[in-house]
UniProtKB/TrEMBL annotation:
This is P-type Zn(2+) transporter. Its EC number is 7.2.2.12. Residues 627-752 form the Hemerythrin-like domain. Residues 111-209 form the P-type ATPase A domain. It is found in: Cell membrane; Membrane. SUPFAM superfamilies: Calcium ATPase, transduction domain A (SSF81653), Calcium ATPase, transmembrane domain M (SSF81665), HAD-like (SSF56784). GO terms for cellular component: plasma membrane. One of its GO terms (molecular function) is P-type zinc transporter activity. It catalyses: Zn(2+)(in) + ATP + H2O = Zn(2+)(out) + ADP + phosphate + H(+). It holds the Pfam family E1-E2_ATPase. The chain crosses the membrane at residues 61-87, 226-245, 251-276, 556-580.
Amino acid sequence: MRRYLLLAWVMAGLVAGAVLHLGGQAEAATWIWSAAALPVAAHVAAGLLRSLLGGRLGVDAVALAAILGAVALGETAAAAVIGLMVAGGEALEAWAEGRATAALTELVARAPRRAARIAGEAIEEVDVAVLRPGDIVLVRPGETVPTDGVLEDEAASLDESALTGEALPVMLRRGAALRSGVVNAGPAFRLRATREAGASTYAAILRLAQEAAAARAPLARLADRWAVGFILFTAVLAGGTWAATGDPVRALAVLVVATPCPLILAAPVALVAGIGRAARRGIVVKGGGALERLARARSVLFDKTGTLTPGRPRLAAVDADAAIGRDAALRLAAALAQGSTHPVSVALVAAAEARGLALPLPESVAEVPGGGLTGSVEGHTLMLGAEGFLHAAGLDPQNGFGVAAQVAAAAGSVAWLAVDGRVAAAFVMADGMRQEAPRAIRRLRALGIRRIVLLTGDRAAAAAPIGRALRLDAVLAGQSPADKIAAVRAESAAAPSVMVGDGVNDAPALAAADVGIAMGAHGTAAAAEAGDVVLLVDRVDRVAEAIAIARRSRRVAFAAIALGMGMSGVAMGVAAAGWLTPLAGALVQEAIDVFAILYALTALRPGADEAAQGALSPEAGLAERQHEHAGLRQIADALREAAERIGPAREERARLAALEARLRGEMLPHQHEEERALYPEAARRLGGQDPMAPLVRMHAEMESLVERIGTLLRLGDDDASWRAAVPELRRSLFALEALLRLHLTVEEEMMAAVSAEAPRHAA
């Protein structure tokens, strides 16, 4: 407010003096202009004194000298214009910073202060500060969730745009974890608090925002260092002009146009604009210093679990004794797994439910931590767990079991099932890559990141496939927290480095890196506190976006400084030649200041290398098609099982006919809808001649295989014909399975590329 009052004072004095001057009252106008300019000089002198006490030479020294020199030489109109330039520059800076920090300001403004707590049958309005874990809170339509908690009602529709930048509301079900700061976009619902409001997600974000606003950027300090040299250059040029011409007014004109407002204002405005842009995308940057370091990054190190992978195991494959069958084995294992909350147990139950298997209740369930489960289901004695768990009971999973399971056990995580004292099935668990991870890595390469490393405490057998699939430069597995620190420091010694992680064990490495980026949406508080950048949206591709925003902000800052000071340098030469009076020079410098600050504000707009696609329109049907992918993967499993089971006898013919009907009823309509609505819109986003041609060709090949399978089934209407058709039928089933799996993987990656805001439940 003080800046705006000072600006109003100078403007009023300048106008009043002009009116008096035009009315023939030249002496009175001189006094009014002096009165308008001298308070600005006092304000600048106070700021200069504070800078000197802080150990810095304030760059406002030139402006102070110009105002006092103009008053002393009787150029009071020029003094008033210089005062207007200084006061106007500060007011413009305040407006620009307000515009640039709008996203952070909005976060603070939206902080919930009151909550409706349910006490018995009554609802009481309380301060959010009094909420405690276990309290039941009513969140009404349009209200902000006041604290972290668990959804108590059947469903809730939430607007998470303030935290994540995701425009579309998210539908969550009973038991889902809710974060404070999101907005209820549907009917009222009840929330059971799990944290105090002061320890909630939103409170942590507000602390990060305040740190971001308070930090001073290295680029701003660099501007100060440049300003010292500029002051010396200005003093030499102005003094030399005076000495050479004997005209102090010409020297004053040099001082007037040399006022370094572009150098003072452009860098911080551009960096704060970048921080504001990042905040709108769910990326909280802890200050301009972190943003400037991020812009210089040349290597990136990723943690694996929870960062490049979701951190939640899923069932990737089942290998079972033919006497039991895969579905029956999964049903028994999932039934027993209902008695445990271990992530593998949760994954088995989810996989069984996805296949529509009815799960009986287990009995006498006992869990050995880190080992497995024992219990009984429908009269069968079951054991479910790791290989060592079965070994302890005298069972050897590797002895005579399927080769596929043995290979999987060597490379990944396998849960073994024993039924009535006999090993019966192996469930291969995988923590697959995040859908957006390949695109994130490619974008980092496009941004000029020279080295990308996977740094994980997991086994080499689990980490190596991720490294191969993402084409990383190195995979460092089996790393302890101390090993991670050493690896980060080694990378930082070669080039500015970024470490990306989410867990407690990643916090030391995040702190050791030049820039630590924490996956804050579902990561730990320790990682968020240690990181310089926190991602509020659970997408690893925001790492590349953060770097792109940082680089654009830094480029804009340097460009604004260079353009502003370049124009000032030209104006100084013109003034030294005697072609600019002090008054005209003041007007020219005012225009240069406005230009430099407005140019710095262009950092609010995305650059060519950071343009992100928004969500595809609902009419494209992306969410529906990707939701259907889970069913298509089940069809792929059924194709493989059918190909393995088929034999010279015709008992499999009826089951194959049912599978063919499922292909025609699920897979082919799915492909038709993609080509009708989804692919045309995706093609417009991708550009080029025919970007969806490979996927359409895959559709055609799969349709041909379905037709071939149908023809072979019709030809095998007797034993002889069936035996003749079996080899080709087996080849067709395996070919369709392989092509379907490849198609789903390629399609999901392409859809991630055209829609940066892909729905969270997409497969």
